[in-house]
Specification:
Two copies of one chain form a homodimer. With 264 residues, chain A is of the alpha/beta class. Chain A folds into two domains: 143 residues, Rossmann fold (3-Layer(aba) Sandwich), CATH 3.40.50.1860; 111 residues, Rossmann fold (3-Layer(aba) Sandwich). Chain A is 45% helix and 18% strand. A six-stranded parallel beta sheet of chain A has the order 4-3-1-2-9-10, sandwiched between helices. A four-stranded parallel beta sheet of chain A has the order 6-5-7-8, with helices on both faces. At the A-B interface, helix 8 and helix 9 of A face helix 8 and helix 9 of B.
Chain lengths: 264, 264
């Protein structure tokens, strides 16, 4: 039986990664799980995020997956460093690919990171970046209002502009030339972030790099699907209507057949 | 053994009700549970909020409580109408007391309600108000950004002002003379809401009425504590530090001895 790529996120954000996976791996089956009953993860403790992540991995393993993409920055940064060696299935997070791309992109060795409280507190981006280049100066800022703003659909206008100005000020002061959008919701705020940071600052949205990494691993392991009609299945732990309403904005197309499961 | 009053909320918001309970019932023991591992409830489905509410009630029953106060508008509006008759312990929600007070306060029979998506979608305030006076015109608006703004501590300034102006506009247009703050976080935004709505609009914050109702029920059932040194215990399902950091703002004094439990 053909195995699928498993993807999970606390909610809808991981669909930005799924979009890239579909683009780069058009023959692959994908099983997506959004933990909408317990969303958001960004404000929860490391311990709790680890527990939720284990439960999500176990759910996806039951769906016959060959690789699991942790398409949530909070879960990737809080749980993956601890969990990676405990599972036989390859686990691909969103931190390392973003960190690598940022190190590659920076010219002045000043990188900014924005993310949820959980992601910033974990300092995982710092750890990853310093391993690649210990000389890089990192400025990290938590932006807790960005996720609710995106989910409310306020992507432009005075409110989001002022919120973004306040959050991004320390990054402008630090003169970063590269900014990691360390949360799967943030790519939807790219226009406003670009306007505030200026065109000369490179914005790193790890989705593309994550898909490249997934492809590389599947290729190395001989697990790529060469052909076939791909199936994309979507599971949520709550509120399929809410998920469906937001999904189009993240995936770039409507999502059908969203199934609610009671696994958590 | 002396029994306590149980209180639960999805997070810290219920502390505004707890504050009133302590003020009006200074001899009572209180056991508070904040479901911070699954907060917020306001964006979740009715079915899931019912499930969480049952689990929270069962947890509090194990703590030897004589009454449970559902100090969360979303749980009160989505779950209480369904659950009320299933438990022997008295369950006091925050909807009826607020609705009653609003009906009592209005002169022009136009009442506004603001709350989370879950609360507004449930239409429980409408149902309660219409039972008391079917002629009243109700305008209800969901304000999803208010909770994250309060938790970020942005209670004044340009951002919250503009967000509030946008949310409150239909209520001003509807010329309500009474506005129910249908979420335990919203009392912290009272100054700005009052400024936008105008001084002639009565703001209903149900905490006081809830405490009066709790007192009445305990008195009727002969369950009031006449004396004794009250004990206040606080449990959370995640992140005691986060809870503690916000608690002072809601309870009006620091909270000590917050215990993390793994019940959910």
């Amino acid at each position: 039986m053909k195995k699928a790529i498993g993807v999970f996120d606390s909610g809808v954000g991981g669909l930005t990664v799924t979009r890239e996976l579909i683009a780069q791996l058009p023959n692959e089956d994908i099983v997506y799980f959004g933990d909408t009953a317990r969303v958001p993860y960004g404000i929860k403790s490391k311990e709790t995020v680890i527990r939720f992540t284990i439960e999500n991995i176990l759910f996806l393993l039951k769906q016959n997956v060959k690789l699991i993409c942790v398409a949530c920055n909070t879960a990737s940064s809080c749980a993956l460093p601890v969990l990676k060696k405990n599972f036989r299935v390859p686990l691909v997070g969103v931190i390392s690919p973003g960190a690598r791309e940022a190190v590659y992109a920076t010219r002045n060795k000043r990188i900014g990171v924005i993310g949820t409280k959980g992601t910033i507190k974990s300092r995982t981006y710092e750890t990853e970046i310093r391993q690649l280049d210990p000389e890089i100066k990192i400025t990290a800022v938590a932006c807790p209002l960005f996720v609710p703003l995106v989910e409310e659909g306020w992507l432009e206008g005075g409110v989001v502009e002022e919120v973004a100005r306040r959050y991004l000020e320390p990054l402008k002061k630090a003169k970063v030339d590269t900014l990691i959008l360390g949360c799967t919701h943030y790519p939807l705020l790219k226009p406003i972030i670009r306007r505030i940071m200026g065109k000369e600052v490179t914005l790193i949205d790890s989705a593309k790099q994550v898909a490249i990494e997934v492809k590389k691993i599947l290729d190395q392991e001989g697990l790529l699907n060469k052909n076939g009609r791909p199936q994309h299945r979507f599971y949520v732990s709550d509120n399929p209507e809410w998920f469906s309403g937001l999904a189009k904005r993240f995936l770039g197309r409507p999502v059908k057949n969203i199934k609610k499961v009671n696994n958590v």
